[in-house]
From TrEMBL, chain A:
Organism lineage: Bacteria, Bacillati, Actinomycetota, Actinomycetes, Kitasatosporales
Keyword Cytoplasm: no
Record's protein name: Act minimal PKS ketosynthase (KS/KS alpha)
One Gene Ontology CC term in the entry: cytosol
Superkingdom assignment: Bacteria
TrEMBL record, chain B:
UniProt keyword annotation of Phosphoprotein present: yes
Carrier domain residues: 2-83
Protein known as: Act minimal PKS acyl carrier protein
UniProt xrefs under Gene3D superfamilies: ACP-like (1.10.1200.10)
InterPro entries, sorted: ACP-like_sf, PP-bd_ACP, Ppantetheine_attach_site
Keyword Phosphoprotein: yes
The entry's keywords: Phosphopantetheine, Phosphoprotein
One family name in Pfam for this protein: PP-binding
UniProtKB/TrEMBL annotation, chain C:
Family: Belongs to the thiolase-like superfamily. Beta-ketoacyl-ACP synthases family.
SMART domains linked: PKS_KS
Keyword check for Heme: no
InterPro entries: Beta-ketoacyl_synthase, Ketoacyl_synth_C, Ketoacyl_synth_N, PKS_Beta-ketoAc_synthase_dom, Thiolase-like
Keywords: Acyltransferase, Transferase
PROSITE patterns: KS3_2
Protein name: Act minimal PKS chain-length factor (CLF/KS beta)
Domain Ketosynthase family 3 (KS3) per the UniProt entry, residue ranges: 2-401
Alphabetized GO MF terms: 3-oxoacyl-[acyl-carrier-protein] synthase activity
Superkingdom of origin organism: Bacteria
Biological process according to GO: fatty acid biosynthetic process
């Protein structure tokens, strides 16, 4: 099965400020930001009280009453995104052997929102250590084990091939797509419904990020709270969302005349083996992941036209990542536009990797580099071209998108036009 | 009025509860002026430790309490300075 | 020529034995680790039995710096990984750091740790939530902590597919070895025997409510009434055969084949996917059904799931066509930890020439399985391990003697 190549033929995105891939692209190409004061619950007790929330009406997106009752918000996102991606690709899955269609969904924190809410009830507000099973919702097991997300997506699209949830913290959304691409390449599947979803805006998540001061306390100016690569950045803005793709083997996609957004040309993940939350500032492991992903794509650093950065807006991440780009791409790093869409849609943990892959594919599609919003004050330690404030027109034949996650995971994916001469 | 003093004994207790101790380090030795990384504690251990101090003593420490080079002496001083503010306010 | 992936080290943490030697001594002789829950008072819950690991004192094995930031399942996983590396004769510090990866499965993360922090949040306030909560309960924690403790910078991952994930992790590890990584630490350890985890498991509606340890978990028995949950699992060292042979390592067996499918949507009436997963694994291994010497069953002990597994086995192997065993009757179901433990048991069975028993079960005749209820001597060259997860995940893995 060697020589099989994998392409993206369908995209759907649910992101703050932009539900639907078209709305999402509108938001990020115009440089608007979706951060606001938290509305889901009273954020007063928390240090960081801003987030990028989605105004999501599950019924308006076609979910039935029972689907809504049994699924956590993140699972709902994934199912809506999967249906949208399949529709976008125009693929007739009924014409495929269901055992040749698989599912991978990335998620860092699974059904956190559902678990937080249900714990509060069964414990009677934290009062009971021996929590009361009589008050548990019938679908609590599906919150406990988030592979339910992949099962729900499989049921909705009729897939019966390999299926799993990939959960590697904040690189889940890249690793899920990488895993799926590997399954197609090795011949275990012909089509993968792959992407990721997280809905972490819940008190327990806010509290744990408060405790490590990872989220920004810039609560008085929400739209300007997320400031990747800016000298005044002081933490990330929590977000939520999902992006799901239809991945297909190149030749079969061509045979059916599918619209091809991009080839998943190379992917790699490495670990820093250093710290569960900290980063060594030399970026060596992310650089190694980038190097291997380029190698797999048989591309030189000079062929990368745009870098879609992790750009979380924490002090250490943006320096770490800047170092990794220089280390892996050399001088080309200085000539390549780099941007962080987290400035606009926040950091949706395991979901953001796929949302950023969607942004990368759409950037190729439109010939536009989305900007880094809120970047006004240069940081001498971050001295690359971060495309501040305004989108930039540019032909893009290849994009590098990267992610960095708690647990030390560092992942890189290269998207390219399949008709490029290499390969 | 809060007349409590925060001492090295309190700090060691909270460190051990919240972050354990590096087997190569003797916390009972002369550690007041050693940087926390020399004592085997990284940022996360210090965040956990200061969180515990803040809760136990009902104070709020500045973010820069934990800047590079913090030592047991600097944290003890920061805590006691907050405690005296709290006492004056009481 | 595809690189072969072999098992060179085992680290076991099981309710009926901590460490490979204790585990195998118990397993070969049918000794169970199932009993009434001791970690909390289960009297108020409809299910009260579990497979708990007794006598695990993490402070004997792990530095005190790690203890406040780890859930019980992570401590067990770190210790099991240490044992597996030692068993393999590998000192990670002597190997190239990018040449070692960690791929584990999880089902519920550090759930007991999570309960403590949720309790602090809702009873005392958000400022009482630990700095460690940001990673101690998430699904990726074991891979992350094992990679940090052992300096492993190669490709790492975490999969969640309920109980099937334990095999999916091993398959992903094999994928990385085929792509050139020399050594991958794989397998899984799960534990969520805390009140909050228990209530969530009860909601799954598959737990046995029996109070009698010998009558509670009875897969393929006409008295099957759900399963007993357990904690633990196994960590395995996987290496490319060439690397293992060059360094003169003991080879327990080869990961020869793998297949994974999902069931059709509930209520569709279509055939479940397990048979297809078995056929894919056999084809991947280049093995005929007749070559399989023993099957380690998923053994759900829920009548319709037992029926589906028996149907799949009969369809592939014929009626009573292959010895089938479920040593997990001695441990309870360990979620993502179960299948790696079965895989460890399979290679230990090969070495011993012995199929360990399915305890307490009186096989229901209708299933037409050759269920091994008394241990049986056998020359085992090829074993099939099955694992299914809630939601319809089916994974099958073929392991061959070296």
């Amino acid at each position: 099965m060697s020589g099989r190549r994998v392409v993206i033929t369908g995209i759907e995105v649910l992101a703050p400020g932009g539900v639907g891939a078209a709305n999402f692209w509108d938001l990020i190409s115009s440089g608007r930001t979706a951060t606001r004061g938290i509305t889901f619950f009273d954020p007063a007790p928390f240090r960081s009280r801003v987030a990028a929330e989605i105004d999501f009406d599950p019924e308006a997106h076609g979910l039935g009453p029972q689907e809504i009752r049994r699924m956590d918000r993140a699972a709902q996102f994934a199912v809506v995104a999967a249906r949208g991606a399949v529709a976008d690709s125009g693929i007739d899955l009924a014409a495929h052997d269901p055992y040749r269609v698989g599912v991978t969904i990335g998620s860092a924190v699974g059904a956190t929102m559902g678990l937080d809410q249900e714990y509060r009830v069964v414990s009677d507000g934290g009062r009971l250590h021996l929590v009361d099973h009589e008050y548990a919702v019938p679908h609590l097991y599906d919150y406990l084990v988030p592979s339910s997300f992949a099962a729900e997506v499989a049921w909705t699209v009729g897939a019966q091939g390999p299926g799993t949830v990939v959960s590697t913290g904040c690189t889940s959304g890249i690793d899920s797509v990488g895993y799926a691409a590997d399954l197609i390449r090795e011949g275990s599947a012909d089509v993968m419904i792959a992407g990721s979803s997280d809905a972490p805006i819940s008190p327990i998540t806010l509290a744990c990020f408060d405790a490590i001061k990872a989220t920004t306390p810039r609560d008085d100016d929400p739209p300007r709270a997320s400031r990747p690569f800016d000298g005044t950045r002081n933490g990330f803005v929590l977000g939520e969302g999902s992006a799901v793709f239809v991945l297909e083997e190149l030749e079969s996609a061509r045979r059916r005349g599918a619209h091809i957004y991009a080839e998943v040309a190379g992917y790699a993940t490495r670990s820093n083996a250093y710290h569960m939350t900290g980063l060594r500032l030399d970026g060596a492991e992310m650089a190694e992941a980038i190097r291997v992903a380029l190698d797999e794509a048989r591309m030189n650093p000079e062929e990368i036209d745009y870098i879609n950065a992790h750009g979380s807006g924490t002090k250490q991440n943006d320096r770490h990542e800047t170092a990794a780009f220089k280390r892996s791409l050399g001088d080309h790093a200085y000539r390549t536009p780099v941007s962080s869409i987290k400035s606009m849609v926040g950091h949706s943990l395991g979901a953001i990797g796929s949302i950023e892959i969607a942004a990368s594919a759409l950037a190729m599609e439109h010939g536009v580099v989305p900007p880094t919003a809120n970047l006004h004050t240069p940081d001498p330690e971050c001295d690359l071209d971060y495309v501040p404030l305004e989108a930039r027109e540019r032909r893009i034949d290849a994009v590098l998108s990267v992610g960095s996650g708690f647990g030390g995971f560092q992942s890189a994916v290269v998207l390219a036009r399949p008709e490029r001469s290499a390969a | 009025m809060d007349t409590r003093q925060f001492t090295i004994t309190d700090l060691k207790r909270i460190l051990l509860e919240g972050a354990g101790a590096d087997e190569a380090v003797d916390l009972d030795g002369d550690i007041l002026d050693l940087a926390f990384d020399e004592l085997g504690y990284e940022s996360l251990a210090l965040l956990e430790t200061t969180g515990r101090i803040e809760r136990e003593y009902g104070i709020s420490l500045d973010d820069d309490t934990l800047l590079d080079g913090a030592t047991p002496r600097s944290i003890i001083a920061a805590v006691n300075s907050r405690l005296s503010v709290a006492a004056d306010a009481a | 020529m595809t690189v072969k992936t072999v098992v060179t080290g085992l680290g076991v943490a099981s309710p009926n034995g901590l460490g490979t030697a204790d585990f195998w001594a118990a397993t070969r002789s049918g000794k169970s680790g199932i009993g009434r829950i001791t970690r909390f008072d289960p009297a108020g819950y409809p299910a009260r039995l579990a497979g708990e690991i007794p006598g695990f004192a993490a402070e004997q094995y792990l530095p005190s710096r790690l203890l406040p930031q780890t859930d019980r399942m992570t401590r067990l996983a770190l210790v099991a990984a240490d044992w597996a590396l030692e068993d393999a004769g590998v000192r990670p510090g002597e190997l190239p750091e990018f040449d070692m990866g960690v791929v584990t499965a999880s089902s519920s993360g550090g759930f007991e740790f999570g309960q403590g922090e949720l309790q602090a949040l809702w009873s005392k306030g958000s400022q009482y939530v630990s700095a460690y909560q940001s990673f101690a309960w998430f699904y990726a924690v074991n891979s992350g902590q094992i990679s940090i403790r052992n300096g492993m910078k190669g490709p790492s991952s975490v999969v969640v597919s309920d109980q099937a994930g334990g095999l999916d992790a091993v398959a992903q590890a094999r994928r990385q070895i085929r792509r050139g990584t020399g050594l991958v630490v794989s397998g899984a350890v799960d534990a969520s025997i805390c009140p909050w985890g228990w209530v969530a498991q009860l909601a799954g509606d598959r737990l046995s409510t029996s109070d009698e340890p010998t009558q509670a978990y009875l897969p393929f028995d006409s008295a099957a009434r759900g399963h007993v949950p357990g904690e633990g699992g196994a960590i395995l060292i996987l290496e490319s055969e060439q690397v293992a042979r060059e360094r003169g390592a003991r080879i327990y067996g080869e990961i020869a084949g793998y297949g994974a499918t999902m069931d059709p949507r509930p209520g569709s009436g279509a055939e479940p996917g397990l048979r297809r997963a078995i056929e894919l694994a056999l084809r991947d291994a280049g093995a005929e059904p007749g070559e399989v010497d023993v099957v380690f069953a998923d053994a759900a002990a829920v009548p319709e799931l037992d029926r589906a597994e028996a149907d799949a086995l009969r369809a592939v192997f014929g009626p009573r066509g292959v010895p089938v065993t479920a040593p997990k009757t001695m441990t309870g179901r360990l979620y993502s930890g179960a299948a790696p433990l079965d895989l460890a048991t399979a290679v230990l069975s090969m070495a011993a020439g012995l199929i360990p028993p399915t305890v307490n079960v009186d096989p229901a005749p209708g299933y037409d399985l050759d269920l091994v209820v008394d241990r049986r001597t056998a020359d085992i060259r090829t074993a099939l391990v099955l694992a299914r997860g809630a939601g319809g995940f089916n994974s099958a893995l073929v392991v061959r003697a070296a």
